């Protein structure tokens, strides 16, 4: 950090990123050099054949060339280990070493080509020598190809536009020129991100919704990253340091007093009832994922159970529409929910941007019409997730500022039109008019379920929604408060999605900047210690949790780029409110839906929850507890629906068992 400037452009790699690649190349080069030297010393007497002089010269020059390359790579590694992340001064000679290293590729390519030509001419020398030459030529071209691939990976399309500024600095520009240059770079960044997203999602389609999603996602990424000179390894270092900082603070705090009510207490009775409802309706949210999740949850028996359904056609009196492999999906849905095929009103696996699969079923056990919406399972769903602007919801209420996540709002409107305009709900309630409406979903499906319940509440006042691991950036404050009367959300452990919003991402970026700014260790040491800590645990490093007053000013200095335009005028460093991410109209603060039940982990467990039991306790939580992203190995695994289902089953079973032990209160829960 900052990104290196070579050949007049900025690259997405820092001068302290070359330690591990350098060591790897050094290892290969030394082995290669020893092998070639051994081959030459042991077989030089056998080079008196036709063409032997050329091969002898080839090996000698190659030995010398490899020695020069080894010395150069060793120097690059040594220089890359110097300084700290925010102090690249000791590494100022890195660019000259890299120019030298790249220049050495020219004789390497020439020599590899000559070796290939000589071998192709059919040299009649000792076969061992010839095989050694062939291996040398192959290794040479592999390394050259790997280098070209690496150059492509670290190429920054915006590097050329930043280079003139980088060399001159910001002081020669007046405010008008700087504003023009900043806007130009942001426009270029948006275009670059849109091109990248289109390449990654080339198979998604080209309809209007997809084009809008491409633009929204590109603008989000360009806005988030345009005011930093972060390279990928800086983000990895920041996350590793934040995790240790977070654990260090947690271990130093006094344990929170847990208020435990007796099982007969009204608050505990309500929690028990809602947990039981969550466990029941989570089956429907999981069923909406279809056969992929079922096979994942049942890797040994799942295929055998639903394999017959994939090949067998079912006809029902109800309409089953959309999607490929519907029968495979239908078989997994039947096994997951335990319902009969005649209990389903509508199943759709139609999947496009802003258009999600969902199912409608009659749940006779709970006397409810259940609408279950699938979570993220495709590139189209990811684009829906990333359309993170806010848009207004037009509701039949007196609420003010009814804003919601744009992509999820669009998906909710699609499902609403299917349910209401196409008469699906009318059909369901014509069969079971006394049933109540329940909307459920997990992840993205949870967000859609929450908005769908809000939209349907005027027509179905008794509607309830159970949202599992919903995204935080979903509802405006007024809608969040309104939804508490009929929506219950369930969050497991450190799950990142219920803590994820544009606001929390901006906060995460500021925390990364702070923790990097106050770190005085070289990057390679932080990465090594971070990998060890993530895999095996241990004691987190001690370092300040906030910058001192004198250090706060340095956030506007060379934190993530000593001469970077986007750093000197970065809102993220100056903590001003000029950032587009702070826009009150486009990215206002958004909140999770409904009341929140948190399955909170207690005690120590395996790093990834697979080596030892995790203990959880269920409690009502406030949304403010999920305003900050927590870093840890389980931040992703806690979001998986199968892990959530296991934890929920165990919590409910344990609390039910405690009803017969009133003197013990509510105890911890072991989750395998």
From TrEMBL:
Domain Fungal lipase-type: 370-502
Top EC category: hydrolase
Top-rank taxon: Eukaryota
Record-linked SUPFAM superfamilies: alpha/beta-Hydrolases
Transmembrane domains' residue ranges: 20-43, 55-77, 98-120, 132-155
A GO CC term assigned to this protein in UniProt: plasma membrane
Gene Ontology molecular-function annotations: metal ion binding; monoacylglycerol lipase activity; triacylglycerol lipase activity
Annotated EC: 3.1.1.116, 3.1.1.3
UniProt keyword terms in alphabetical order: Calcium, Cell membrane, Hydrolase, Lipid degradation, Lipid metabolism, Membrane, Metal-binding, Phosphoprotein, Transmembrane, Transmembrane helix
Cell compartment(s), UniProt: Cell membrane
GO annotation terms (biological process): arachidonate metabolic process; diacylglycerol catabolic process; neurogenesis
InterPro entries: AB_hydrolase_fold (IPR029058), DAG_Lipase-Related (IPR052214), Fungal_lipase-type (IPR002921)
Catalyzed reactions: a 1,2-diacyl-sn-glycerol + H2O = a 2-acylglycerol + a fatty acid + H(+); a triacylglycerol + H2O = a diacylglycerol + a fatty acid + H(+); 1,2,3-(4Z,7Z,10Z,13Z,16Z,19Z-docosahexaenoyl)-glycerol + H2O = 1,2-di-(4Z,7Z,10Z,13Z,16Z,19Z-docosahexaenoyl)-glycerol + (4Z,7Z,10Z,13Z,16Z,19Z)-docosahexaenoate + H(+); 1,2,3-tri-(5Z,8Z,11Z,14Z-eicosatetraenoyl)-glycerol + H2O = 1,2-di-(5Z,8Z,11Z,14Z-eicosatetraenoyl)-glycerol + (5Z,8Z,11Z,14Z)-eicosatetraenoate + H(+)
Membrane topology: Multi-pass membrane protein
Family the UniProt entry places it in: Belongs to the AB hydrolase superfamily. Lipase family.
Free-text function comment from the UniProt entry: Lipase that catalyzes the hydrolysis of arachidonic acid (AA)-esterified diacylglycerols (DAGs) to produce the principal endocannabinoid, 2-arachidonoylglycerol (2-AG) which can be further cleaved by downstream enzymes to release arachidonic acid (AA) for cyclooxygenase (COX)-mediated eicosanoid production. Preferentially hydrolyzes DAGs at the sn-1 position in a calcium-dependent manner and has negligible activity against other lipids including monoacylglycerols and phospholipids.
Protein name (Swiss-Prot/TrEMBL): Diacylglycerol lipase-beta
Encoding gene per record: Daglb
């Amino acid at each position: 950090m900052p990104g290196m400037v070579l050949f007049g452009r900025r690259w997405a790699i820092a001068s302290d990123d070359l330690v591990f690649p350098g060591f790897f190349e050094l290892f290969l080069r030394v082995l290669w050099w020893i092998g070639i030297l051994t081959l030459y010393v042991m077989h030089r007497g056998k080079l008196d054949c036709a063409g032997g002089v050329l091969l002898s010269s080839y090996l000698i020059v190659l030995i010398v060339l490899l020695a020069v390359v080894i010395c150069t790579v060793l120097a690059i590694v040594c220089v890359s280990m110097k300084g700290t992340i925010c102090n690249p001064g000791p590494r100022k000679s890195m660019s000259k070493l890299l120019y030298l290293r790249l220049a050495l590729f020219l004789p390497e390519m020439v020599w590899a080509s000559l070796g290939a030509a000589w071998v192709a001419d059919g040299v009649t020398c000792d076969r061992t020598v010839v095989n050694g030459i062939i291996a040398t030529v192959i290794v040479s071209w592999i390394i050259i190809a790997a280098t070209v691939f690496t150059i492509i990976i670290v190429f920054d399309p915006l590097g050329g536009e930043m280079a003139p500024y980088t060399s001159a600095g910001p002081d020669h520009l007046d405010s008008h020129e700087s504003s023009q240059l900043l806007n130009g770079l942001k426009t270029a960044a948006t275009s670059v991100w849109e091109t990248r997203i289109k390449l990654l999602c080339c198979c998604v389609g080209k309809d209007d919704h997809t084009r809008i999603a491409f633009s929204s996602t590109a603008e989000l990424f360009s806005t988030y990253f345009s005011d930093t000179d972060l390279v990928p390894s800086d983000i990895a270092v920041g996350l590793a340091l934040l995790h240790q900082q977070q654990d260090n603070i947690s271990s130093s705090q006094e344990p929170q007093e847990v208020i435990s009510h007796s099982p007969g207490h009204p608050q505990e009775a309500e929690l028990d009832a809602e947990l039981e409802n969550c466990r029941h309706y989570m089956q429907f949210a999981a069923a909406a994922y279809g056969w992929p999740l079922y096979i994942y949850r049942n890797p040994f028996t799942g295929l055998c159970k639903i394999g017959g359904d994939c090949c067998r056609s079912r006809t029902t009196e109800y309409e089953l529409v959309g999607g490929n492999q519907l029968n495979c999906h239908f078989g997994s849905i039947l096994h997951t929910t335990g319902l009969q095929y005649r209990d389903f009103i509508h199943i759709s696996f139609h999947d496009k941007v802003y258009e999600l699969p969902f199912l409608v079923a009659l749940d006779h056990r709970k006397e409810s019409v259940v609408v279950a919406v699938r979570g993220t399972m495709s590139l189209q769903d990811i684009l829906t997730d990333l359309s993170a602007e806010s848009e207004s919801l037009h509701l039949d209420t007196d609420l003010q500022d009814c804003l919601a996540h744009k992509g999820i709002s669009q998906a909710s409107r699609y499902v609403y039109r299917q349910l209401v305009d196409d008469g699906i709900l009318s059909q369901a309630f014509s069969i079971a008019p006394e049933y109540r409406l329940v909307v459920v979903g997990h992840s993205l499906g949870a967000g859609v379920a929450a908005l769908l319940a809000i939209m349907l509440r005027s027509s179905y006042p008794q509607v309830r929604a159970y949202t599992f691991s919903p995204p935080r950036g979903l509802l405006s404050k007024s809608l969040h408060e309104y939804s508490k009367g009929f929506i219950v959300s369930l969050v497991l452990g450190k799950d990142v999605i219920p803590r994820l919003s544009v606001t929390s991402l901006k906060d995460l970026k500021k925390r990364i900047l702070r923790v990097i700014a106050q770190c005085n260790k070289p990057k390679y040491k932080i990465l090594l210690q971070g990998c060890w800590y993530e895999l095996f645990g241990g004691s987190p490093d001690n370092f300040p949790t906030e910058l001192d007053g004198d250090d706060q000013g340095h956030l506007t200095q060379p934190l993530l780029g000593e001469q970077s335009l986007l750093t000197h005028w970065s809102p993220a460093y100056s903590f001003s409110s000029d950032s587009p991410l702070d826009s009150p109209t486009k990215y206002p603060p958004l909140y999770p839906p409904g009341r929140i039940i948190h399955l909170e982990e207690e005690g120590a467990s395996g790093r990834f929850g697979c080596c030892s039991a995790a203990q959880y306790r269920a409690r009502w939580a406030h949304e403010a507890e999920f305003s900050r992203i927590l870093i840890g190995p389980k931040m992703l695994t806690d979001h998986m629906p199968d892990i959530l289902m296991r934890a929920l089953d165990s919590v409910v079973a344990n609390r039910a068992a405690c009803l017969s032990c009133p003197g013990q209160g509510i105890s911890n829960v072991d989750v395998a």
